[in-house]
């Protein structure tokens, strides 16, 4: 998506050769007009696929997923990072490894809101190793829901997550796909 | 706001006499068309007040605040719950007491995105004791930003937060204000 790539070039900050900070417009301070445009782009890319629900993970996926839910006219569900180990029996849980924070955490959704046979479009801000998306896919599997695909804002194409998910058969639509980046030469998109 | 009150009556679940669960449409699974309608209602209530930025707190404020930011055509900024005690010097931080979870936590925003003289409209899902809103107001004060007011989805009018904030001189617009509630008799709105 041209306007997203231009915005990343203009306002993104590359640190070293694998960290891209986009907190001025995407995941701390947020340009909501851009998010609405991104939602329309995902809708176009996923075409006529039937979507009953949008699923994302707190916190930085919520804003963009909200506009996708509005675009499709379906509910948004966001997976919560579990604050306690004593989870009630009425939730699906899965583990997500965070490379950024070098931790593993539990994420959960209420069983009431993820149902067998539902067609779920998963949305998240970054795709690197794909751990968050795999966790969300696992929640859908536990519920017997059908994963329509994954919409991602920024894919680090030089990390393995996107290709792994595609090989598993999932349709992954990344609006900006980075081939290479470093703080000297900036960003090269695919 | 009539449609929000009706939705709370229909889908809200009262537990005991002070817990209201709205996770089927407002803060876990989310009806984004309702959020867009709420954003328009806040815009109407705050009238011609100049607004440069929307501020909320993760995670359950983000979706509704996104639609307010889109409605006003201004950026959204969400305060993050700090995961570490070692915060870099480039953030404003404040402490928020959570009565729900019986804990105190730090919230932070980057100094880059909250600026002196900016007119900030604060949005959050619930107002009970007002601790989260007071924390967000404190962040604005530290930055020298001007608080235009606070837009709240659901105010528990039988708790002190709303009146305290109004006595402090802040304009607080709650789209549904609960006078009393309990699991036997349901909800009475003001």
Summarize the structure in words.
By secondary structure, the first copy, chain A, is an alpha/beta fold. Helices cover 29% and strands 37% of the residues of chain A. Chain A has helices spanning 2-11, 32-46, 62-72, 131-143, 161-167, and strands at residues 13-15, 19-21, 29-30, 53-57, 76-81, 91-98, 103-110, 119-127, 146-156, 172-182, 186-189. The first copy, chain A, has an eight-stranded mixed sheet, sandwiched between helices. In chain A, helix 5 links the parallel strand 9 and strand 10. In chain A, helix 2 crosses helix 3. The radius of gyration of chain A is 16 Å and the shape is globular. At the A-B interface, strand 3, helix 2, helix 3 and strand 5 of A face strand 3, helix 2, helix 3 and strand 5 of B.
Oligomeric category:
homodimer
Shape of chain A, please?
globular
The biggest chain-chain interface is: A-B, 31 and 31 residues
The radius of gyration over CA of chain A amounts to: 16 Å
- Count of separate DSSP helical elements of chain A: 5
What is the first-to-last residue Cα distance of chain A? 11 Å
| Run of helices and strands of chain A | HEEEHEHEEEEHEHEE
Helix content of chain A: 25-40%
Strand adjacency order, main sheet of chain A: 6-7-5-4-8-9-10-11
Main β-sheet of chain A: number of strands, strand sense, barrel status?
8 strands, mixed
Total strand segments of chain A = 11
Low-confidence stretches of chain A: none
% residues in beta strands of chain A:
35-45%
């Amino acid at each position: 998506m041209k306007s997203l790539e231009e915005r990343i070039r203009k306002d993104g900050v590359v640190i070293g050769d694998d960290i891209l900070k986009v907190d001025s417009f995407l995941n701390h301070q947020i340009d909501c007009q851009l998010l609405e445009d991104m939602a329309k782009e995902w809708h176009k890319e996923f075409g006529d696929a039937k979507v009953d629900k949008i699923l994302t993970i707190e916190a930085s996926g919520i804003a963009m997923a909200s506009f996708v839910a509005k675009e499709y006219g379906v509910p948004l569900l966001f997976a919560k990072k579990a604050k306690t180990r004593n989870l009630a029996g009425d939730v699906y849980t899965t583990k997500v490894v965070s490379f950024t924070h070098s931790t593993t955490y539990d994420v959960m959704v209420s069983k009431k809101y993820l149902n067998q046979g539902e067609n779920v479009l998963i949305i998240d801000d970054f795709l690197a190793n794909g751990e968050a998306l795999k966790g969300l896919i696992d929640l859908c599997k536990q519920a017997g829901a059908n994963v329509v695909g994954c919409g991602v804002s920024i894919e680090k194409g030089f990390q393995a997550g996107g290709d792994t998910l595609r090989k598993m058969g999932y349709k992954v639509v990344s609006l900006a796909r980075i081939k290479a980046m470093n703080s000297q030469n900036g960003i090269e998109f695919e």
